[in-house]
Amino acid sequence: VRGPFHALLRSPELADRLQKVGAYVRFESSLPARLAELAILVTARHWGAQYEWYAHRRLAEKAGLAPAIADAIAEGRRPAALEADEAAVYDFCRELHETKHVSDAAWGAALGRFGERGVIDLIGTCGYCGAVSMVLTAARVPLPEGVAPLLFP
Questions:
Q1: Residue 60: which of 90, 99, 84 has the closest Cα?
Q2: Burial of 1 by CB count in 10 Å (0-12 exposed, 13-18 middle, 19+ buried)?
Q3: Residue 138 burial by Cβ neighbours in a 10 Å radius (0-12, 13-18, 19+)
Q4: For the segment 1-57, what is each residue's pLDDT rounded down to a tens digit?
């Protein structure tokens, strides 16, 4: 058992329930994988969750997210070249994490692109990955041996 689930096994019921939410977020969400992975990277960056970043950076690229986007997020910068749907996800997630609020403009952009279900799925992705990131950082889950940290303040 790797990642957050090793730590979560100390609370098996919570582990089981979070795993089910994670399965929805990763495999059944209305968001395309590229955009869900973008939301996960923004969340991992927000929490400084090295393991979450390590696990999802390659999944984001496999899903079609440009490496330059992930590089900018890792460095704490807004990516320069975002497609309109990526910008809607990035702005929404950053506002939600940084201000604990979402502006009318960010809400409207996400709603217009993804519909009501998509907006709630986006919030759920941030919430689930925030919980996972907190477990990973608080429980001090290490990166695999030989993997260097990629997120810096």
A1: 90
A2: exposed
A3: exposed
A4: 567 778 888 899 999 999 999 999 999 999 999 999 999 999 999 999 999 999 999
